[in-house]
């Protein structure tokens, strides 16, 4: 690109973001063109990142923010800008496209990201709002069995009548389960969510390590824990499975909204009938790694996940 001007300065427009250019100047008079000046290197600032809100999660103590660079060439770093409502903002610099941010419970924050190179920072990304009233996660659609469909808001799971063979299952999901995973941020604290169910749906809900065996049902191995509902001709049966074993328990009132309370520090995973404020069962375990919430349907039906809920007092006594 070459511009001809009569001034001692020039504005060069339409440059690509996050790109390096060489600039030089020649002078022209009636006798000809001078030799070129020394070349100057100039780096344009990056494009603003795009926060992937459907892949962000939070809990009362922290939030995991993920974004896309929006730039073809690599950038040097990213600046995450955090502003609590009614307070001054803070900044932190990270090298990759995600950041785990420590937060205060019961607050609302605005979070935006800038990309930075030697030319300077980009404009801010579109901000997202995070509220730390409870644990918040989306269902990971890329882990869902092909039989399942997820609502547009990402919180209701549907299973139709079509049966697919095991060979059709996606490799990310638990092969023998018509299942989907939730994304839980890696914070060792207390987490709580609720699942709305109905009497006619057979399901498994619980948690599993990321490396849970793919040829096993939820609760059938040492790396997953679940509550299972089974329909029989005479009654509704509930099991609390880990490593293929369940205690002998009888639940007399079928729960329609189940609370799940995960406490990493105490090593407990508890289930509750929310409407009755009734404790159903607690697993006592030492979690070696972080876990994902898991949701599985064993017959056609639907489950709805409710999160970003403040845990009731009775759940962590």
From TrEMBL:
Where does the Fibronectin type-III domain lie? Answer: 45-135
Query: Which SMART domains does the entry link to?
Result: FN3 (SM00060), SPRY (SM00449)
Q: Which UniProt keywords apply?
A: Coiled coil
Q: Can the keyword Coiled coil be found in this entry's annotation?
A: yes
Q: Which Gene3D superfamilies match?
A: 2.60.120.920, Immunoglobulins
Q: Where is the B30.2/SPRY domain?
A: 117-313
Pfam families attached here? fn3 (PF00041), SPRY (PF00622)
Its protein name is Fibronectin type III and SPRY domain containing 2
């Amino acid at each position: 690109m070459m511009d001809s001007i009569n001034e001692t300065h020039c504005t060069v427009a339409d440059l690509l973001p996050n790109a390096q250019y060489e600039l030089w100047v020649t002078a022209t008079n009636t006798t000809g063109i001078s030799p070129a000046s020394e070349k100057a290197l100039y780096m344009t600032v990056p494009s603003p990142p795009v926060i992937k809100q459907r892949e962000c999660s939070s809990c009362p103590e922290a939030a995991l923010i993920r974004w896309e660079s929006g730039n073809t060439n690599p950038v040097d770093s990213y600046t995450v800008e955090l502003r609590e409502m009614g307070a001054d903002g803070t900044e932190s610099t990270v090298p990759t496209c995600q950041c785990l941010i420590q937060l205060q419970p019961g607050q609302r924050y605005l979070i935006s990201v800038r990309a930075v190179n030697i030319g300077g920072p980009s404009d801010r990304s579109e901000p997202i709002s995070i509220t730390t009233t409870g644990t918040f996660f989306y269902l990971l659609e890329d882990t869902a069995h092909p039989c399942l469909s997820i609502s547009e808001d990402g919180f209701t799971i549907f299973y139709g009548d079509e049966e697919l063979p095991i060979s059709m299952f996606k490799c990310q999901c638990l092969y023998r389960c018509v299942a989907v995973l939730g994304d839980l941020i890696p914070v060792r604290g207390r987490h709580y969510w609720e699942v709305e169910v109905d009497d006619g749906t057979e399901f498994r809900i619980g948690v599993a390590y990321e490396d849970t065996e793919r040829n096993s049902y939820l609760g059938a191995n040492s790396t997953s824990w679940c509550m299972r509902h089974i329909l029989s001709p005479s009654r509704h049966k509930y099991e609390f499975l880990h490593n293929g074993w369940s205690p002998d328990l009888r639940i007399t009132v079928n729960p329609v909204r189940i609370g799940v309370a995960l406490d990493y520090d105490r090593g407990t995973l508890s289930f509750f009938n929310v409407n009755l404020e009734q404790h159903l069962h607690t697993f006592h375990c030492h979690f070696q790694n972080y876990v994902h919430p898991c949701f599985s349907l064993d017959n056609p039906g639907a489950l709805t996940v409710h999160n970003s809920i403040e845990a009731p007092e009775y759940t962590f006594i």
